[in-house]
Every structure is written in C-alpha cells, then in structure tokens.
C-alpha cells in the first residue's frame, strides 16, 4: 500500500533503527517506546490486522517474536516481556499495518501496557 508508513519502513524506503530483517519481516525500534528496547515486528507485505494476515505468516511472526524476546531479554537484561498486538481503533491500533509490539519489562517500570 503506497500510503502506508509501515510498508515504507518495512520495505526500506524510509530508514529505521532495524534490529533484524529477513525476506518476510523487519523488526524496528518503536518511535515512542513504552520501555527501553520497545520494538515492533513488521511483515514486509501489507496486512491491515490479524484478521487479514494468513495463518502461515502469523505463525512465522510468532516464532520470530519468541526468538526476538529471548535475544532481547539476554541483551537488555530485562525482567519480563510483553508481546502486544492491537486490532482495530477500539483496541488501540493506530497504524493499520499488522505489527507485534515487543516490550521489555523492568522491575519498577511504570509502563502502562
Ligand atoms: P499500535 O497503536 O497501532 O498498536 O502501535 C503503533 C506503534 O507504532 C506505536 O507504538 C507508535 O509509537 C509506533 N509508530 C508510529 N509511527 C511510527 C514510525 O514512523 N516509526 C516507528 N519506528 N514507530 C512508529
Ligand atoms: Zn502497510
């Protein structure tokens, strides 16, 4: 989708702080982090939400989320981890390109997830 900011970021047309990239996904740091290291998994193909993403891609995204959470916990020394995925305005979705939030949690942080 030509007017989608996450399509442009995932495709590399807009530079981003990239933690990981493969043929299907790019993982970037969130512009407005809830905690240190808050990142987003973006598929390179445009799907608006969980309802649109094919099961195979959703499964790949979840496997990647597990790998990223494990590596980030090791790298950051965080105490826990939230994986959040919003669908629809009422659920807090603000960018309508499927994404998963990777949110490291630290003892005593005040993140209102
Ligand atoms: P949502 O509310 O849709 O689940 O999450 C959207 C997330 O994308 C927010 O946490 C917001 O900070 C982040 N975000 C919005 N625009 C940009 C951007 O241009 N670059 C990056 N890195 N993050 C963005
Ligand atoms: Zn998109």
TrEMBL record:
Domain HIT: 5-112
GO biological process, one term: nucleotide metabolic process
Catalytic-site annotation from UniProt: 99
Domain of life of the native organism: Bacteria
Span of the annotated motif Histidine triad motif: 97-101
GO MF annotation list: catalytic activity
Protein name: HIT family protein
Organism: Blautia faecicola
